[in-house]
Structure to design on (663 residues):
């Protein structure tokens, strides 16, 4: 890992208990290309925040920085009052950030259940020798992992008969469900969903919208999502952040954002006066 | 052809439906019992028993490499390094080679002998530890690499170990002692045994066979337990999708290094056994072809499949040490050709691998996951579906 100057001075907004995730002037450059340019934003605890923007706006790049897959070129990321700017992704998951991927990344050769069991990795600790001799603690832990995984699959609405199915054989909608269950298995405080409704029909999208509310209320999660479906964005989010060409162009209540001329311009092009 | 296949799989399903649920366990237990009584069917020094011992030792290596390549998906082409470390452990800690020292610990060697002489169980433990550490050291530079590049780096390490073994005669470690004896070989390695009670010898091969069978069953047990554990799942997750795995909280460095260490330790156990069995450790044994042989065993058996690794190791071990040199060796001369068959054994191996890849690419006893992957038409349709939808 290269150590670079973060270039971050004081935070734009001081970390408070209100904001669970804070990005402070985060920049990511790939060679000469600036994918994300000095973006600052905060995700309030227990909120549902949407990140929107045209294709190539840098949304997924920002997600990858928040989860540690990319290291920001400049800027600072704080999660739950811990600086996670250069932390390893698995440690960030351990702190309580979980995510899904834009183009579903399940472990295709494993069953739906095993996928969710993997999600428990950060919350369990069986080691090599314990696993070989099957210490009582390890056996108990293994049973707990399995029970919890079953429970989560039920929670996201996967039919019981599909739990032992190979993940890559599941239908698209079911794969999305398993991916969310796998993310929930790590007991996150913040859940990042990357285009969760991509490829879903309107009924499925509506169901997912209400499921997100349920998640937030029942598991007291905070949800940050990237979404293209405006109906979902307007229906679910309390705040919306708009990115375009790697820069934040607008932020606020869904209604304000929808009527913001810069946002309309980014999506539809400049209107002739 | 496809009709025949459909018919066959139908029969297999019908058969599986009729068998009691414990039949696989029963089969495994029966095989182990047969394995234990097997040597009584042969004379104490039969050539077949000799080949069987080596075949089982190879199955142990195959099990070890399967952890690295099959479970964790790290293509290791330098596995010969652990054969070398294991065998040298047997040489260093069970012969007069370090002649300035005089350490005896429950060894079968006469008490007056110079050198380090440890009990063979201790030698096995030391071999496993040395190999686990070596495995992690070799693994370290590959951590940031993927696929083919891992193969290149491990291949180079395997070669380095071979060259060091060859030139070890020039590495002086003080008192006129050197690191290895090069191609001359470190010999007479102490046979295993209980000091004062019984000592293994070359005239009765049965105890050797039971010893390596016990080692294999131990390694088999460990691999099965590990596969079905949190760690085993993490290895497979890393193999399937590294980005998703680390996003789910799996520390990639530590998990990969454990795979390297475990695989290497098993190789070391087998290497130490082969060293003691041959009674000599010479640098000529540690060639690149050996790594490929073990890899071929894992692939023929079915990548990632534990029983496949055992079957592949034993099958190729027999082909290499019994079928070609002992059974079919005179075949060419019978048809008027003037060479022993063992001279083209690599050619035969290549041919067998090719046939295998064409007829049964998933291996002899494929892992459940891979079997599904390779036979499912559903999978193909689903892949198309996700692609158009995403």
């Amino acid at each position: 890992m290269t150590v670079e100057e973060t270039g971050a001075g004081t935070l734009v907004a001081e970390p408070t208990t209100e904001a669970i995730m804070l990005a402070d002037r985060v920049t990511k450059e790939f060679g000469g290309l600036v994918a994300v340019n000095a973006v600052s934003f905060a995700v309030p605890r227990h909120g549902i925040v949407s990140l929107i923007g045209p294709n190539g706006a840098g949304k997924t790049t920002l997600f990858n920085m928040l989860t540690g897959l990319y290291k920001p070129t400049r800027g600072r990321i704080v999660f739950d009052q811990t600086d996670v700017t250069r932390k390893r992704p698995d440690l960030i998951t351990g702190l309580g950030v979980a995510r899904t991927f834009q183009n579903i990344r399940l472990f295709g050769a494993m069953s739906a259940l095993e996928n969710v069991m993997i999600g428990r990795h950060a919350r369990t600790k069986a080691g090599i020798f314990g696993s070989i001799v099957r210490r009582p603690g390890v056996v108990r832990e293994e049973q707990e992992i399995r029970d919890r995984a079953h429970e989560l699959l039920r929670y996201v609405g996967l039919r019981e008969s599909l739990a032992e199915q190979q993940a890559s054989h599941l239908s698209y909608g079911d794969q999305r469900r398993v991916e969310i269950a796998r993310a929930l298995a790590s007991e996150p405080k913040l859940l990042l969903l990357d285009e969760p409704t991509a490829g879903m029909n309107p009924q499925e999208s509506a169901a997912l919208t209400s499921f997100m509310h349920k998640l937030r209320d029942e598991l007291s999660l905070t949800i940050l999502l990237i979404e293209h479906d405006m109906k979902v964005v307007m229906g679910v989010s309390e705040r919306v952040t708009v990115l375009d060409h790697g820069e934040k162009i607008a932020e606020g209540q869904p209604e304000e954002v929808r009527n913001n001329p810069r946002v309309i311009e980014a999506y539809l092009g400049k209107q002739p006066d | 052809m496809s009709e025949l296949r459909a018919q066959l799989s139908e029969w297999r399903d019908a058969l599986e439906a009729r068998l009691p649920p414990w039949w696989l366990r029963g089969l495994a237990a029966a095989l182990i019992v047969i394995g234990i009584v097997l040597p009584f069917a042969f004379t104490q020094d039969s050539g077949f028993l000799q080949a069987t011992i080596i075949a089982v030792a190879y199955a142990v290596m195959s099990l070890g490499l399967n952890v690295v390549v099959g479970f964790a998906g790290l293509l290791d082409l330098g596995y010969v390094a652990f054969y070398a470390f294991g065998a040298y452990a047997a040489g260093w800690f069970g012969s007069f080679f370090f002649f300035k020292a005089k350490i005896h610990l429950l060894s079968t060697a006469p008490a007056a002998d110079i050198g380090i002489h440890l009990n063979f169980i201790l030698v096995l433990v030391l071999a496993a530890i040395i190999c686990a550490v070596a495995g992690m050291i070799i693994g370290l530079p590959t951590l940031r690499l993927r696929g083919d590049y891992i193969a290149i780096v491990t291949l180079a390490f395997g070669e380095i170990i071979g060259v060091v073994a060859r030139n070890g005669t020039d590495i002086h470690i003080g008192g006129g002692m050197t690191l290895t004896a090069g191609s001359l070989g470190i010999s007479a390695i102490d046979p295993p045994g209980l000091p004062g009670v019984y000592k293994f010898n070359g005239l009765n091969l049965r105890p050797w066979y039971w010893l390596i069978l016990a080692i294999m069953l131990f390694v088999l047990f460990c691999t099965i337990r590990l596969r079905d554990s949190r760690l085993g799942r993490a290895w497979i997750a890393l193999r399937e999708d590294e980005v998703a795995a680390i996003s789910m909280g799996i520390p990639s460095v530590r998990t990969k290094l454990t795979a390297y260490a475990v695989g290497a330790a098993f190789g070391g156990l087998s290497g130490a056994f082969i060293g003691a069995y041959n009674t000599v450790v010479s640098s000529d044994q540690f060639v690149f072809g050996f790594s490929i042989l073990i890899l071929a065993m894992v692939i023929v058996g079915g990548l990632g499949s534990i029983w496949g690794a055992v079957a592949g190791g034993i099958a190729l071990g027999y082909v290499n040490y019994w079928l070609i040199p002992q059974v079919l060796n005179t075949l060419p001369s019978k048809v008027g050709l003037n060479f022993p068959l063992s001279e083209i054994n690599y050619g035969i191996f290549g041919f067998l691998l090719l046939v295998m890849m064409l007829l049964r690419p998933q291996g002899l006893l494929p892992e459940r996951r891979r079997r599904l992957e390779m036979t499912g038409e559903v999978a193909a349709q689903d892949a198309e579906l996700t692609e158009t939808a995403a």
